[in-house]
């Protein structure tokens, strides 16, 4: 299960937060944990450099893209390798939508499109699409180019 | 060149001034959502409002029921617009709002229309939305379309239907299971993701059918799997088949091993790792099988991608737990990872090295770790400390180096958990390595000279009191202990006084000097410290009111363990009301239970993924005792000795769920039947259980307490009590019949009809066995307890347990039959071990202490033999334990 996808700005404020199968009372705990993880490790990180950690039986892969920090959390079959795949799709889509590694403002400007991308990538904890070109078409309700 | 730079700065200024969501407020956005009702829709504006709604929801904002309904109804109007961008947003916001069952109807016709649309993308999205918001009845209506969609030539449509199927399988399994032909076809799809989703769904549909899974794996491992993700799934399912099928007995080959090994050469890293992990986790894996997997993992240790390094070292770390020798080839690569920027990787590397290192490399390794420790967080340090502890137990001759390392890090900065881990490790090493005792105690003494944690100081003082007097020169510890009396807070001072007394009791030549020190404590400012000093002085014969106790009494008092759980003692003391009758410590329940009183409810409320920290153990026996003593029929039964775990008397998912808790008293047994009515349209009244005790001769029914009313989904209890010969561990079998009056309930009003019908429901049989009279009471040091019990009432015998699934399964079965407390973690059997010793302790009815030493062995065809040695305070109890095993 892909338990969560979160976007924070550099100050640790939430931009997007999508949990799947995580009870509401545990969410705050995860938010705090991830912000701390980021502030400990992401300083001076290069764009899209991947970071990885595990906490109990859960894996976390995270990265920074422009002024936005991205975290994906998973367990069982969504181990660090599967999560790396997921975060790769997410970062490529965000770059695609924004045209470059986004500033916070640019990210918020493209907020609706980014939500649509996430909707195509992860559906209730299951990875659905992995190809950014296909996703770019799907969010405009265009059929994939390769069929 | 100058131009773009200036432009960029302009951008920045603008950004700082304005964000599209500045000052966003829920109320205002809900107002804005009224544009959805405009006769002339403005798609751009509507999309913006939806984006704002999404922003609010993604920030964790929630809408009240009324707000959500209003927005949802407004959103449904947007289906009138033909704007494609807006339509895509509408699909998303409907899913986010997840309307309730009675509202869904508004939108189903629009979605059904989209689902039959010629435009593929409308179809795919409509399927996703419908499946998200649908219930069982609607699902049967659209099932036909979904089946078609699964084999649709457009992969997006097929994936949408398949992923919907994966989700719907949780709620409507019987419907989704009917799609297996279509899903089977989709597994052969040329589109990579369709194949991935289809494979996942097909496996879930068939997971309980071993043969079908085996066939699926056999056909796919020979065919082509296009997506790496699907390949990973296939590897996982293959390992499951391997686990269930075992070795090929004729050739000794492992089925599918060649396939796994082939995957090690796949071009996708994900697949390589999955295969390597599958191989390392094979049960009874040989070193020949392991080698290729370890080789590829070794290559990844020096990858430039942190995720791959992490995955490789994490896998090797696991392998090192069971096959340390197989990993030694990677030692050099792992050593270079100690300086990895990612601290998770570095810590895994260190702890793996600590497992794989040999005796000669310990010193070199410790040097590297010392540098590393200063720049990692406490939680990583704790992992390292634990690994060092295991290493020291493995190479006892190296205790000097390792003990020195522990004492050095003990002096450095660190939080409580970290310091506690170090102190615990030193204590364990002192216990297990006699040579390490003196130096270990000395390090602990140094630590308490400057320890900021009261808890740790008192723990160490307690330990010092037990171990210090037995050393060659006990006098050298006195200074450290008495310093605590001068320098520390009251809690630590009181502990120090107790420790001094222990030295006084054990070491005769120190006694006069201890008296001098204890007398000084009589003037302490704290009550507890003064009281303890007075008590010990008098007990040891150094006070004015010395009591006449034998030397043994004194030592028993000072060193004997408190044989009741502290939590139980605390509760009993709180419940005790001051009166003429003194508090009786024998009235404190001895059983330590960790299961909560909350009985199992209807299934479906599964614990969730992230695993919040488990709540601490709660004493349920007190709650049971309180409840039972409040029932007049049972209040005269005396002290509750033990309550069993709930035993299920019905299968899962039946109309009425019943489990029973057996409450054991000296001369009585009470059965507490926890009943749950799982039918919303029924109300049960006058619920009782008719118990037939014809196969339980020593028991006779004395009373029962019926349950007046049992509404839907609110568990309640009915009780039946039996008399049995006092103090005798009587056993027997009871058959049970649930009897009640059932009344129909009108689902719309929730009111029950006046008249009911009498009905019965057969439950499973229930047994009272000897283990029900056994309390799970642990001992802190099994070897000491075993030695001090002596062989007077010992009985040893050997048993054949027949063919078992594994050694671990045999051990856990025997532990469960005996109902005793496993000691020192011996209930855990390392995988692949051929023999195992398990230590158990308990207290049998009549307050008789029992210790059990179980030695297991397993041979090739999985035949398990067991030697059972029992020591107890009573020969008949030792015999009873053997009878339990002989009859079980």
From TrEMBL, chain A:
Belongs to the adaptor complexes small subunit family. The gene is LOC104595383. Residues 1-137 form the AP complex mu/sigma subunit domain. The lineage of its organism: Eukaryota, Viridiplantae, Streptophyta, Embryophyta, Tracheophyta. Oligomeric complex that consists of at least the alpha, beta, beta', gamma, delta, epsilon and zeta subunits. It is a peripheral membrane protein. The keyword Cytoplasm applies. It comes from the Eukaryota. Pfam families: Clat_adaptor_s. The zeta subunit may be involved in regulating the coat assembly and, hence, the rate of biosynthetic protein transport due to its association-dissociation properties with the coatomer complex. It is found in: Cytoplasm; Golgi apparatus membrane; Cytoplasmic vesicle, COPI-coated vesicle membrane. This is Coatomer subunit zeta. GO terms for biological process: intra-Golgi vesicle-mediated transport; intracellular protein transport; retrograde vesicle-mediated transport, Golgi to endoplasmic reticulum. The keyword Lyase does not apply. It comes from Nelumbo nucifera (Sacred lotus). GO terms for cellular component: COPI vesicle coat; Golgi membrane. PANTHER family: TSET COMPLEX MEMBER TSTD, ZETA-COAT PROTEIN. Keywords: Cytoplasm, Cytoplasmic vesicle, ER-Golgi transport, Golgi apparatus, Membrane, Protein transport, Transport.
From TrEMBL, chain B:
It is a peripheral membrane protein. Keywords: Cytoplasm, Cytoplasmic vesicle, ER-Golgi transport, Golgi apparatus, Membrane, Protein transport, Repeat, Transport. It is found in: Cytoplasm; Golgi apparatus membrane; Cytoplasmic vesicle, COPI-coated vesicle membrane. Residues 623-768 form the Coatomer gamma subunit appendage Ig-like subdomain domain. InterPro entries: ARM-like (IPR011989), ARM-type_fold (IPR016024), Clathrin/coatomer_adapt-like_N (IPR002553), Clathrin_app_Ig-like_sf (IPR013041), Coatomer/calthrin_app_sub_C (IPR009028), Coatomer_g_Cpla (IPR032154), Coatomer_gsu (IPR017106), Coatomer_gsu_app_Ig-like_dom (IPR013040). One of its GO terms (molecular function) is structural molecule activity. Residues 771-885 form the Coatomer subunit gamma C-terminal domain. Pfam families: Adaptin_N (PF01602), Coatomer_g_Cpla (PF16381), COP-gamma_platf (PF08752). GO terms for cellular component: COPI vesicle coat; Golgi membrane. Residues 27-541 form the Clathrin/coatomer adaptor adaptin-like N-terminal domain. Residues 596-618 are annotated as: Disordered. GO terms for biological process: intracellular protein transport; vesicle-mediated transport. Oligomeric complex that consists of at least the alpha, beta, beta', gamma, delta, epsilon and zeta subunits. The coatomer is a cytosolic protein complex that binds to dilysine motifs and reversibly associates with Golgi non-clathrin-coated vesicles, which further mediate biosynthetic protein transport from the ER, via the Golgi up to the trans Golgi network. Coatomer complex is required for budding from Golgi membranes, and is essential for the retrograde Golgi-to-ER transport of dilysine-tagged proteins. Belongs to the COPG family. This is Coatomer subunit gamma.
């Amino acid at each position: 299960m892909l338990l969560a996808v979160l976007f924070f700005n550099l100050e640790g404020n939430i931009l997007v937060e999508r949990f799947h199968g995580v009870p509401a009372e545990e969410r705050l705990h995860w938010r705090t944990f991830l912000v701390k993880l980021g502030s400990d490790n992401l300083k001076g990180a290069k764009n899209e450099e991947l970071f990885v950690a595990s906490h109990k039986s859960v894996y976390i892969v995270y990265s920074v893209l422009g002024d936005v920090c991205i975290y994906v959390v998973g367990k069982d079959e969504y181990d660090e390798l599967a999560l790396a795949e997921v975060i790769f799709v997410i970062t490529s889509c965000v770059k695609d939508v924004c045209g470059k590694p986004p500033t916070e403002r640019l990210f918020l400007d493209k907020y609706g499109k980014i939500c649509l991308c996430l909707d195509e990538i992860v559906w209730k904890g299951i990875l659905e699409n992995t190809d950014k070109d296909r996703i770019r078409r799907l969010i405009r309700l265009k059929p994939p180019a390769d069929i | 060149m100058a131009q773009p730079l200036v432009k960029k700065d302009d951008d920045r200024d603008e950004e700082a001034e304005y964000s599209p969501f500045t000052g966003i407020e829920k109320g205002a956005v809900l107002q804005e959502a009224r544009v959805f009702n405009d006769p002339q829709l403005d798609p751009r504006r509507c999309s913006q409002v939806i984006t704002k709604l999404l922003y609010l929801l993604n920030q964790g904002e929630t809408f009240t029921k009324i707000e959500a309904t209003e927005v949802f109804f407004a959103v449904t109007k947007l289906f009138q617009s033909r704007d494609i961008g807006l339509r895509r947003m509408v699909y998303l916001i409907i899913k986010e709002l997840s309307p309730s069952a009675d509202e869904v109807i508004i939108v189903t016709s629009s979605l059904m229309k989209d689902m039959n649309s010629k435009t593929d993308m409308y179809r795919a999205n409509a399927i996703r939305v419908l499946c998200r918001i649908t219930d069982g009845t609607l699902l049967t209506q659209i099932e036909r379309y979904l089946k078609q969609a699964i084999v649709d030539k457009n992969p997006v449509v097929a994936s949408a239907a398949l992923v919907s199927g994966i989700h719907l399988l949780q709620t409507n399994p019987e419907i989704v299971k009917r799609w297996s032909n279509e899903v089977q076809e989709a597994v052969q799809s040329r589109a990579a993701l369709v194949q991935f989703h289809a494979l996942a769904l097909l496996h879930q549909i068939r997971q309980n059918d071993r043969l079908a899974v085996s066939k699926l794996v056999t056909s796919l491992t020979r065919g082509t799997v296009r997506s790496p993700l699907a390949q990973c799934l296939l590897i996982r399912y293959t390992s499951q088949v391997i686990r269930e099928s075992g070795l090929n007995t004729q050739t000794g080959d492992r089925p599918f091993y060649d396939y796994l090994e082939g995957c090690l050469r796949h071009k996708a890293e994900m697949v390589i790792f999955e295969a390597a992990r599958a191989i390392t986790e094979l049960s009874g894996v040989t070193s020949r099988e392991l080698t290729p997997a370890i080789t590829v993992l070794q290559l990844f240790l020096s990858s430039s991608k942190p995720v791959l390094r992490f995955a490789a070292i994490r896998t090797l770390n696991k392998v090192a737990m069971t096959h340390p020798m197989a990993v030694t080839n990677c030692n050099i690569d792992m050593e270079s990872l100690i300086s990895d920027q990612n601290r998770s990787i570095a810590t895994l590397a260190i702890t793996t090295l600590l497992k794989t290192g040999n005796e000669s490399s310990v010193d070199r390794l410790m040097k590297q770790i010392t540098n590393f420790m200063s720049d990692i967080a406490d939680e990583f340090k704790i992992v390292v400390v634990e690994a060092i502890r295991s290493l020291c137990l493995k190479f006892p001759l190296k205790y000097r180096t390792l003990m020195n390392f522990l004492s050095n890090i003990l002096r450095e900065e660190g939080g409580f958990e970290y310091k506690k881990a170090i102190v615990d490790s030193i204590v364990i090493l002192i216990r297990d390595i006699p040579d390490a005792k003196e130096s270990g105690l000395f390090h602990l003494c140094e630590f308490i000279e400057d320890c900021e944690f009261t808890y740790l100081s008192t723990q160490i003082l307690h330990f010092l009191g037990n171990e210090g007097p037995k050393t060659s020169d006990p006098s050298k510890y006195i200074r450290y202990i008495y310093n605590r009396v001068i320098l520390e807070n009251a809690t630590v001072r009181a502990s120090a006084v107790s420790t001094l007394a222990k030295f006084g009791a054990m070491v005769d030549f120190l006694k006069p000097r201890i008296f001098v020190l204890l007398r000084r404590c009589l003037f302490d400012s704290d009550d507890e410290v003064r009281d303890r000093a007075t008590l010990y002085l008098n007990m040891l014969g150094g006070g004015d009111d010395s009591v006449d106790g034998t030397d043994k009494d004194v030592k028993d008092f000072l060193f004997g363990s408190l044989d009741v759980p502290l939590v139980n003692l605390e509760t009993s003391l709180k419940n005790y009301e001051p009166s003429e009758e003194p508090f009786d410590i024998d009235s404190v329940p001895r059983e330590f239970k960790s299961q909560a009183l909350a009985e199992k409810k209807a299934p479906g409320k599964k614990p969730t993924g992230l695993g919040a920290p488990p709540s601490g153990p709660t004493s349920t026996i007190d709650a049971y005792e309180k409840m039972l003593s409040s029932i007049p029929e049972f209040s005269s039964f005396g002290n509750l000795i033990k309550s069993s775990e709930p035993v299920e008397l019905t299968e899962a998912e039946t109309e009425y769920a019943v489990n029973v808790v057996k409450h054991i008293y000296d001369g009585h047994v009470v059965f507490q039947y926890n009943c749950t009515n799982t039918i919303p349209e029924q109300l049960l009244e006058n619920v009782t259980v008719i118990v037939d005790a014809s196969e339980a001769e020593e028991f006779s029914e004395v009373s029962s307490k019926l349950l007046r009313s049992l509404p839907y989904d609110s568990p309640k209890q009915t009780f039946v009590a039996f008399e049995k010969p006092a103090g005798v561990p009587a056993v027997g079998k009871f058959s049970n019949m649930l009897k009640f009056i059932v009344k129909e309930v009108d689902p719309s009003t929730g009111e029950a009809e006046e008249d009911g019908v009498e009905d019965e429901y057969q439950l499973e049989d229930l047994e009272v066995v000897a283990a029900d009279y056994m309390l799970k009471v642990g001992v802190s040091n099994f070897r000491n307890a075993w030695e001090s019990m002596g062989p007077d009432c010992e009985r040893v015998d050997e048993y054949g347990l027949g063919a078992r699934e594994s050694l671990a399964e045999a051990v856990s079965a025997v532990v469960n039959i005996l109902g005793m407390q496993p000691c020192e973690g011996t209930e855990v059997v390392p995988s692949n071990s051929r023999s195992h010793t398990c230590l158990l302790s308990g207290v049998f009815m009549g307050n008789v202490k029992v210790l059990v030493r179980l030695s297991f062995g397993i041979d090739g065809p999985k035949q398990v033999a067991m030697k059972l040695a029992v020591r107890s305070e009573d020969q008949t109890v030792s015999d009873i334990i053997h009878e339990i095993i002989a009859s079980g």
